[in-house]
Specification:
395 residues, single chain, binds pyridoxal-5'-phosphate
């Protein structure tokens, strides 16, 4: 089983785990331990020297966490993975690993707010500069690359406007310049998009979202296609910065991942039904969804994603006041940031996730005051549409 190539859904359930190695336990055991006891002083010395495999201390590795990492590596078609205590711990570890003072990071315009905050810290304190640019053509990408660019960092679809970035194009140009590419794949999940297959170097996730899928864990994952490099990060940045995941959270993620394909299919189906409904609503102006045929980047979305996913953004006529009124009238749909949970969530980017972005930049990014983002959950879409309908009639 371990080395056999299997379909992705099968990998989500089996990869990285052998029950014979764990007292025949069907479910992955939870090794809730901080440290590991050595049989002899010499054995401890061998483990510290890396001459013998086995537990040392859970910040350096834990058997439950290791199953999660091997499973995630298989799920993203990579060679190695590292699990972290949050998506931001994953982002910061990879950026610290890839850069040194004087280097430059090129990013898509529209990145996760805390990633933007991290880039500013790197710039102010460690002389690692960055630019945010629209990277939608070969010319634009070439023009944005500087002599000291060491990393292109992208998100696609871009939050919350669902702009699509052509991963293959970026990877091709970056390779020519020997620049590493990192993709934050949180919005798509490994089920819908696999950037390593398209030529990038690292994929990362806020596993808080679709990977866990149940709204009860904060966690992050980095997957790479060079096992040695991943192990170097484990024994440097991850070990010494210490942003590791707890064994219990890893255990919950392993449990969540087993149903990821089933959940993503339902998130996507529900989202498609909601998009169809929103198109009929007079007070909805624009709808942003990757697989909507009116999306200008529909073709690129089809090329690199196997489904449109569970996130929809739309603008309400009347701006902030009407958008907030709609939210307040909802009864079933919860007002909350985050995404990828069983519960359908709605948030107002201008005053919530993107409130730190200066107004001018925010509007340039298409994040208007009337924009709302829906993370479509796993409820029956009839009830979700009913809830939206009754709220729209109050506007
Ligand atoms: C949530 C999120 C993050 C940060 O992850 P945490 O688990 O909250 O630390 C990073 N990138 C994207 C796209 C996210 O949605």
């Amino acid at each position: 089983m371990q080395n056999k190539k299997v379909q992705k859904e099968t990998a989500y359930i089996h990869k990285g785990y052998q029950s014979v190695e764990h007292q025949d336990s069907l479910a992955v055991p939870l090794y809730q331990t901080s440290t590991f006891a050595f049989e002899t002083a010499e054995q401890g010395a061998r483990r510290f020297a890396g001459e013998e495999t086995g537990g040392v201390y859970s910040r350096l590795g834990n058997p439950t966490v290791r199953v999660l990492e091997e499973r995630m590596a298989a799920m993203e078609y990579g060679e190695g993975a590292l699990a972290f205590g949050s998506g931001m711990a994953a982002v910061s570890a990879i950026l610290v690993h890839l850069t040194k003072s004087g280097d430059h990071i090129l990013c898509t315009r529209g990145i996760y707010g805390c990633t933007f905050g991290l880039l500013n810290i790197l710039q102010e304190k460690y002389n690692v500069s960055h630019d945010l640019a629209i990277l939608n053509t070969e010319e634009a990408i070439e023009a944005a690359i500087k002599p000291n660019t060491v990393c292109i960092y992208i998100e696609t679809p871009i939050n919350p406007t669902m702009e699509i970035v052509d991963i293959e194009l970026i990877a091709k140009i970056a390779k020519k310049h020997r620049i590493r590419v990192v993709v934050d794949n949180t919005f798509s999940s490994p089920y819908l998009q696999n950037p390593l297959k398209l030529g990038v170097d690292f994929v990362l996730h806020s596993a808080t979202k679709y990977i866990n899928g149940h709204g009860d864990v904060i966690a992050g994952i980095v997957v790479g296609n060079d096992k040695e490099e991943i192990e170097r990060i484990r024994l440097s940045v991850q070990k010494d910065f210490g942003g590791i995941i707890s064994p219990f959270d890893a255990w919950l993620l392993i449990r969540g991942i087993k149903t990821m394909h089933v959940r993503m299919d339902r998130h996507t189906k529900n989202a498609e039904e909601l998009v169809a409904y929103l198109k009929t609503v007079a007070s909805v102006e624009n709808i942003y969804y990757p697989f909507d045929t009116s999306n200008p980047q529909y073709e690129i979305a089809r090329k690199q994603m196997s489904g449109g996913g569970g996130l929809i953004s739309f603008t309400v006529v009347g701006g902030m006041k009407e958008a907030q009124k709609l939210m307040n009238e909802l009864k079933l749909i919860k007002i909350a940031v985050s995404l990828g949970d069983a519960e359908t969530l709605i948030q107002h980017p201008a005053t919530m996730t993107h409130s730190v972005v200066p107004e001018k930049e925010r509007l340039e990014m298409g994040i208007t005051d009337g924009l709302l983002r829906l993370s479509v959950g796993l409820e029956n879409s009839i009830d979700l549409i009913e809830d939206l309908k009754q709220a729209f009639t109050k506007l």
